[in-house]
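User: quick one, fold this
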Amino acid sequence: MKKMYAGILILALMLCAAIYNVHYLDMKMEMLLQYVDTAEELAGHGESDSAAAILREAISYWDGMDSYTHVFIRHSEIDAAFDAFYDCLGCLQSGDDGSSAALDKLRSHLLGITSMEHLGLGSIF
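Assistant:
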């Protein structure tokens, strides 16, 4: 009987840890999405240099999360996000008209990472 209660306790702790992980990732991604929104707003007003500076801050923030991301997020997703960040930065620095699309691509990658970590029947079975 004690083993059953220990097993239930372990499962409950694992569920709590998973819920906290999703909450933590949501907070971090919300911060990154705010950077992206600010960069898009600045780029829309023709301030490409300021938008690029904001995006560099976002890249630094993302890079600072590496001890977390390399454990909890697939490496292919990490690489895709870095590629999207640098694609956006390149568009902003060159003054390319595709910066809005590049920022949308980055936003999509970040939202995709978040949605993959949320609990659901598809992620359990």
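User: anything notable?
Assistant: The CA atoms of residues 42 and 76 lie 30 Å apart.
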